[in-house]
Each structure stands twice: as structure tokens, then as C-alpha cells.
# Entry
Amino acid sequence: MTLYLGDTAPDFTAETSAGPISFHEWAGDSWVVFFSHPADFTPVCTTELGRVAQLRDEWDKRGVKTLALSVDSNEDHAKWIPDINEFNKCEVDYPIIADEDKKVAVLYEMIHPAEGDTSSVRSVFVIDPAKKIRLSMTYPKSTGRNFDEILRVVDALQEADRGECATPVDWKPGDKIIVPPTVSTDDAKAKFDDVEEFYPYLRTARVRESATGGGAVGCS
Ligand code: BEZ
# Structure
């Protein structure tokens, strides 16, 4: 099954380093960053899982739960976590799925056999409180991810939902947003502050503080 943006993130049950979870129930009303990594006791993964733990306050500010997966056992996770904590001066306080039978990795298409072996690649899913997949990315095993970028995407998705808008290249909180092509400039002026029209199809603006949004918008 191919997973597309906007699809409901498949539910599953799994054993994790923090006990068994039922995914949708565990996610509750939070956003979720669900990411896989190839294997325990590997160097790039050690840096990645530590970085996710170091960013705990940033995830919390945004209402995000983090969940990792590898196809290793809970026994391995328990032996490896102290190394991650020591090397990164952090506390891994989020669950790592022990997906030895690859049930969840297959469900989320995290196994790419041409990438060396049948361990999971570096997949990332951002899932919203309605359990919809809002972003998916796949990195090769050799390249550690940039979790600051994943935080930036969460910020952009949350701002887009709040303002029913889009965000431009390299957007970060405080920058002006993009008025969706589906909204006329007159309607944009009624809805947003500081609207500027560069071309009829390229308008920037600011989302009002009072905006509460209506969920995901497309650009077509
Ligand atoms: C690593 O995490 O260091 C790694 C894992 C699999 C392949 C290459 C690197």
C-alpha cells in the first residue's frame, strides 16, 4: 500500500522501549513525528536519536510526540539507549519501536532493499492530530537528518492550518505567509494583514493573531 500525503496514518500495535503501544491511541490529540532508522549500535543513528531527545522542549512547545522505529529488539534498544544518552548528553524519553518482524516498517514502506540490506531506511512522517500524513521524507542510510528542518516543517504546517495559507521557501515563524491562489486579493485583504501583491498569483501577508484556521489547504 502506497502512503500518500493526506492519507490516514495506518494504525498498528507494537512493542517499544517504553512498553506496548497502540499507535492511534498513543498519539491522542498530538502531532506525531514518526521516524525510522536502520539499526541500533550504529553511529549516525546514535547522533540522530540523541538530537531528537535534545529537542524535547521544542517538540513539546508544538504539541508533538516523537516515535522512533528500528527492526532491532527491545533488548538491544535497552542496551543502546545509555550510549545515546551519554554521547549526546540527553535523556531518550520517547518510545523506540522494536519491529523485529518488520510489520510496522513494511506497513509504512520503510524497507528499501536496494539501500544495502533489509533494515529500515531513514523515513520521517509528520502526522497531524486528525491522524493525517502531512509530510513524508526518505533519507538514505548514509545521511543523518536535520531535525531543525523537521521542526520548521511542523511550524509551517501549523501556521498554514491556523491561517488557511501556504508558506514560502525557507519560511520560519515571524516571516510573511503566502496567500493561496484560490483566494482573491480582495478576499485576502479582508482575511489577512499586510497583504502585498507582487503578481496576481503571488501575494504575501500576515496571519492575524485571532486566526484559528480551518485545517489543511491545498494550493490548486
Ligand atoms: C549509521 O547509523 O551509522 C548507519 C546505519 C546503516 C548504514 C550506514 C550508517
